[in-house]
Amino acid sequence: MALNSTRLFGILSSRGVPQLSQRTIVSKALREVKEKPAPYPYEEKKFRYLTQLTDRTLPRMDENSKLICVEGAPGIGKTELAKKLADEFEMLYMPPVSHDEIYTGPYGVDYRKWDDLYPDFFKCFGEKDFIKNPLGSCEGASDRYHGRVLKMKWLNQLKAERHILNTGQGVVMEGCAHSDYCHFNAAYNAGWILDETPHMYKVTLDNVLFHIPRPNLIVYLDAPVDVSQKNIKAMGNEWDKDSPVWNNTQYITDIADEYKNNWLRDMQEFSRVLVYDWSDEGDTEVVIEDIENTELDMIELYSNQQKDWRYHHEVIAAQKRYQCTNYRWIEKKLACFHVDDIWYNEIWLSNTDDAMTMANIFRHVSQERYAPGANKHLGDDMMMINLFGMHSAYASKAAFKHNKFFQRAEGNYENSSSDWEFKNVKLE
After folding, report:
1. Which of 99, 171, 269, 301 is surrounded by the most beta carbons within 10 Å?
2. Which domains does the chain have, with CATH numbers?
3. What is the pTM of this model?
């Protein structure tokens, strides 16, 4: 059973008219088929301002148009539970963030194979590297790693909101941006973060979190530290062996304490929270039943509960959808990560010499010579470009499959290799 379940409200309207409570999220066995508009193809078709008038949002939404976030101790089965919940409620499963999406180019090129050429500031440092050596090979590696993780979690949450509002399908994800500070603080307490970084991290959090909605429902899986360490060891991963991260009992304890003493308590004002003891892998059927009995729709008028997902009418829903689907709006939101303090911080911003060195390296390692979708040598269809000179990189941008590791300045010819260099001296 859940250690902290939600309460049901019997009064809906300000007039005090009693309403019968009904289940909200429904499993596929009990779910009724409802006629509603087809999902909007947001990754292929632009969502413009006037599209709000012709393609309505709320008719797609139903009782399962929710965001569920699975949090908890490491190594106790969060991924398995999240996948089962997504299948049971016919939702989209979003895996935990990974640096693979940063270090892999839009055409599948792994930029990590040239890591020995990069300046120290740009050395590749992902999840496995952090687990093996949380300090990294150079100053600030762990600080920048945690900054990238926050940004990826934030982007995942934005993509979840976009998917829900454009398709009506719910999303189950692992880890959210709102809980990321639990891991950051634990890393700082362990001595893996520099003293000047917490200020930068807090300023960034304050500048970006209000752009994304909190989850409708949080499922937290709890387990003692020794159980987590035992399970991680049993996985047999090479990078987990003798890890200074997983062997640091205080680090794992700090994460759990922050979750249970502060974060879950604070999030209960806005999201429903269910907590389970998952030491021996709990009963998934119990979790499913508890979720079905959790009230997510019939909320008191002035309550903060589910505040981020209560649109009241089509206009508000359409505006929210436009702001998380239109790519210009997404770029504006992403720009909020560039806080003013970053310009005075040598840990998060590279110096000019290192940036110029990387630009020169990428003249030779980038497989794409032009914008995504316009590289004939990589198999892109060039018919529209050849016939009409028309090209759009929207599909790549909407899917976030562009180069997210290092981008050369656009419009500067010196940042691109010459035709001869591109054909003859590409680094392999």
Report:
1. 171
2. 51-343 (3.40.50.300), 354-424 (no CATH)
3. 0.89
